[in-house]
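Why run this: before we spend reagent on co-expression, it is cheaper to look at a predicted model of the complex and decide which construct boundaries make sense. The entries below are exactly what would go into the expression plan.
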Amino acid sequence: MLIFEHSSQGRKGAPQSPVEKASVSAIPENLLRKKSAALPEVSELQAVRHYTRLSQKNFSIDTQFYPLGSCTMKYNPRACNSLAMLPGFLNAHPLTPDEQNQGFLACMSDLQSMLCEATGMAAFSLAPMAGAQGEFAGVAMIEAYHTSRGDVERREILVPDAAHGTNPATAVMCGFRVKEIPTLANGDVDLDALKQAVGPQTAGLMLTNPSTLGVFERNIEEIAKVVHQAGGLLYYDGANLNAILGKIRPGDMGFDVIHSNLHKTFSTPHGGGGPGSGAVGVAERLIPFLPLPMVTQEGEQYRYLTAKDRPQSIGRLSAFMGNPGVLLRAYIYMRFLGREGMVRVAEFATLNANYMMVEARRRGFTLAIDSRRASHEFIITLKNEARNYHVSAMDFAKRLLDLGYHAPTTYFPLLVPECLLIEPTESEAKEALDGFMDALEQIKQEAETNPEILHAAPQTMPVKRLDEVRAAKQLDLAYKAS
Amino acid sequence: MSEVPSELKYTKSHEWLRLEDDGLVTVGISDHAQELLGDLVFVELPEVGTDFVAGDECCVVESVKAASDVYMPISGEIVEVNEELADEPEIINSSPYDNGWLFKVKPSAEELDDLMDADAYQAEIAE
Amino acid sequence: MPFIPHTEQEISQMLQTIGADSIEDLFDEIPAHLRAAALEAVPVGMTEMEISRLMHQRAEKNTKALCFLGAGAYQHHIPAAVWEITTRGEYYSAYTPYQAEASQGTLQLTYEYQSMMTALTAMDVSNASMYDGASSLAEAILMAVRGNRKSKSRKILIPSTVNPVYRQTAHTIVKGQQIELVEVPYDAATGTVTLELIKQQAEADITAIVIQQPNFFGCLEAVDEITDWAHENNILVIAVINPLAAALLTPPGEWGQDEASKGADIACGDGQPLGAPMSAGGPYYGLLCCKQALVRQIPGRIVGRTVDLDGKEGFVLTLQAREQHIRRSKATSNICTNQGLVVTASTIHMAIMGAEGLENTAAACHASNNSLVEKLSAIKGVKKAFSSVHFHETVLQLDAPAAQVLKALMQKGILGGFDLSLDYPELGSAILVCTTEMRTEEDIVAYATAMQEVLAQPVNDIASLQESA
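The model came back. Tokens follow.
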């Protein structure tokens, strides 16, 4: 039932708004609304009950194991939320003079420094509001760098075919052509193909390492050399930074630009789809191009850098500075971890993934890449099950919901047929991992003996499988009162 | 097994072409292509009167999980589009070679003979 | 170990299963000489008690001055229930609703958001949100360029009455795509754009025009006239709105007198006034709405209502084929994240406030701004810059240098407004003052008194304040 269907004309009862309408006689009639907006008319209790009940129809980290590959669904510590929502932060107007905003700016300055150290980059900007915007900033900086050197013929960005869809979409948004580089069966980039592809037209290569296939790119040094020798820059997509935090740094691998998804590695909440944060870091030569605003420390004082300080900046990406509330949560999380805690993140995320991968093999599943260590995630391919029992990865996913687990990522990466991309994260205990593997094994047995159970799943959710064709064809995108 | 009518011409990107008596060429997507895409939910047709060169993207067909460009198989001007697809894109699924045609082209060059015949296309999709 | 549950015994069991001697072995594919040393520059970890103390100290350092500052972020009252419910773990720690059956909470809520936003704006379609108002304007421009097939010029008219940081952001985001943003100056007397001035910039082929209502100066633009003219000339209209003001003012979907082409084609803006705290600049969210004809050009996530196998109502992400994870380099945008959690808050906010609550709030903002402007402009050395009607922000010109006046006000506990001299030097010493429903008559009197005292000092005294600060 929609909130609109709880509505009764004339009902109010919210003591949060002015009771009387003040005069608006100064505003000409033609600029005033003729009819009130058709919002629901409900009591506060009705709204509270409705949205509390709706929340209970969600799976979430706080309620279920959520091994969604490539998304790093780790625990979001509660203190990160409550401390980021202290009134001193919430009531800070974004244009407050710097001198009156020192507490917040200090946190941002510290966060920039910690990110530099953790990734081996020379400087960081916290401006991008999500991973994709971080990518945009990164590629725009690559463009600005080449242009500043008069190197205007570099119009092509190389992207491995295993990459996230945002990589090619971003390159096109920045005005580049995209060339895909194939991946070998062992998960490494096809180095020969890369050597063939680079040239005077190459602006850069966008790479995720460990890759979306859940393995570390072993030839990273050679790749960096090939791209740099061709005059291109190397972009690090930080989607999988959780796997290597404190173990190896993108800066040391030769990357010139990186973005870090703070909502993955640094545990800010996913919030049902956002907000995120895609802070960008660069090597020395790209510092002038970083997006604004940034925070700098001068003696004991902190201030925002402006276009006056950074005339070559690619500019602004938002009205103010990214998503400060998200940045504060990441900052608090990093202070919890400290230098030794950061390394443990990668260690235990990797331990959990490798344990699950070996367990999957033992239980008769086919691994997409069988001969290698997993990073913080790994891939099962269900192509045999699909062929032999006519069940799909989607069927497995839906059946998992019935057994109380959020499904892993399905159908990504696109290169692996009928795949489940599984990322446990470091915050899950062994019994959660074992429970999940038991569930997967049970579903495999069901697939062999009674595949109908899978096809009919889920049965225990608020709804059964939904008609997506109807949703896309008979578009119903907003409630209209009948 | 997909249907591949023998009287039509085909492209690697799964368009089919039929030379009509009036010299116009009708274009659609093959049975094989509609099977790959699944239930179609939307077709974005080109505007009548637009000139295209062979290989241009001219049209998009969209299912729930995929959107695929249709490439202009020959150079020419769009003279008619299948308006019925706007409301019923699923016609392409049910009748890819007849009622599910996409558009008609007035060719500007002799390119039709360079395209694949049914046997060649059959071999192509069997791979 | 913070947030890591493993016991020693479990670690050895797991390693044994894997067949590794140590956790270190799991990293043996990484070239040894590239391995990181200890992260010396990161401080050692802290306990929750220690962090709590640190964050309280830092939060305390931020000002508690009375806020008369707006310019794109506004201090409104938010019902206590809004964030209490929003931060429930089921909303807070869920991901994008890719498994629809296990995400009906987020999906239905988003559908309700889309419904409320279309009701508020009188537009046909709303997406699930963009990052913020400025970036949603950039996406609106990209959308208009894709959507206006009759136009080939990729030229967009943007009046200088549109928030300067929105214009800068739009420039950053669209410049890679050969789109030209043409600035239209404003009328010095009214602080609004006129059709006359627009026509001077308008060549034969213009793709779209951006109109902000209320504009950056707080003034109300002649939206009907401009919309009709634009549509007569095949120009798409992009509205930038304050959604709270839309509860009171003519919504963008009803701009224009011409029934056949009524309404802005795209509406965008920042959702912050509807339930998001100022929070030093975010997270807020960008609203993005359009007419039905442009539905396949809208970027970002969209939720649709459908039915399940039993015919029961349910909600799914739809129109996904436009998005980056499927269309890759041909996607409508690279965006994948929306501002889901803030949208959750905003939806609950709208439900609790209702149309009447929002309208009364908007009217209160307007009325208290009238009161403030009346009291301030009665002071010698302060005058209203523009003649037109304003919503809840007004430009005031001062006899003394704005930066120094604001600094002096700050010392009296008043965050007095936004200094316009950098973005609009032609206005001389000018500030943009804002009031919301949270500013009481008492607050307004306090501001007027402080302003009187500051301006009563000789100019060089104000200047010396600046230097000594």
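The radius of gyration of chain C is 26 Å. Residues 41 and 131 of chain C are 32 Å apart (CA to CA). Bring this page to Monday's planning discussion.
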